[in-house]
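User:
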Amino acid sequence: MKIVDTLMRTLGYTPQRQYKDITVSDGATEISLDDYLGLLTATSSGEYISPGNAMGVTAVYACVGLLSETLAQLPVKVYRVDKTGRHEDLTHPAYRLLAVRPNEWQTSFDFRVMAMQLLCLTGNFYAWKGRDNKGIVRELLPFSTNAVSVQQDENWNVKYTVHAKDKHVVTTSKDIMHVKYRTLNGYEGISPIAWNRETLGLSSAARKHGALFFKNGATLKGALTTDQQLTQEAYDRIKTAWETNYSGDNKFKTALLESGLKYQPITMSNEDAQFIQTRQLSDEEIARIYRVPLHELQMNSKTTSWGTGIESMSRGFISRTMLPWITLFESVLNNELIPENEQGTTYIKFNVEGLLRANLENRYKAYQIGINSGFLSANEVREKEDMNPRDGGDEYLTPMNMTSNEKDEDTGKEDNPKNEASDEENS
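Assistant: Predicted structure:
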């Protein structure tokens, strides 16, 4: 295919299949958005915060990684609906883009991780929709966020400007797939980093303070005191001897004191305690920004309202945190990758059942109820467990106490031998 070549010609380049010429980002670590997002002003803590350096805050790194990798691991399926029911369509072009390979250098997992990371950091994700001669989307080429700007004119038309070197091309949503994280104007997403700069600035400042704190020897553990008046020579000798014999790798050795010296331990100061609390509160606020439960960030010091037990808390994470993201992606992908004449009968769906699965015993009990109640077949259960179908497994069981007699329904009589006998006598 020559989709990338066509794009490069539009931008004024000689086609050489060099993807770097169209400013395609290799990942969120290469983002430079200070000018784009107006983040050149320091926060109140004195820190400069941008989507690029925000990943240096461990809580941000953990939240973004958790959300992006959770979304990327979900199976994506394309379904086609007809009179016989719903069927998985493995031949649809959208299936290959989302489940196999969206372009020549990325896997489906890589593409979705990148998309989710950019959304979590900048609030926007853009990809060029490369089409074949029939107009079918065959490639999705991701852009770094600062390579695309979006505007809306007085006629409500949304225009995208793709920047590459000193060239640029103006196009519409026909060529650009745009995923937005929330929005205030309807056509551009908001950046969680830009809207929470002060919180992230405080966390970054605390992190740097802690690094300098330990670089300079951490906290003062104790002091040497004496009632005697020391000469400068004695002071220098004791100081040198102490640093040589009881610091670094020797800090746990037993100290020998002279000249009436006493060692006075110093406990943690209020400032040190406040520093630790500040770090904890900053991490909690960052988790709140991304709606990530603390237990998913290995922070288990506090109680949680996400349920009791790992299974319950994990289900809460999927339903409260991931489902809004999944719904966002599904709506955009269905709008962008499913042709208009197929919409309504073909759709894209992420399979979250694998994340919501209960333990083995509870799953099998639920399957048993479904089969015995007649709304699940054996092969449907086997499909959920990634097992091959078996002969006769498509039959649905019908419990005897749930059957109906059409004849009795018409006459309004119960199916009772005594009633039948009574009728015969009367005749």
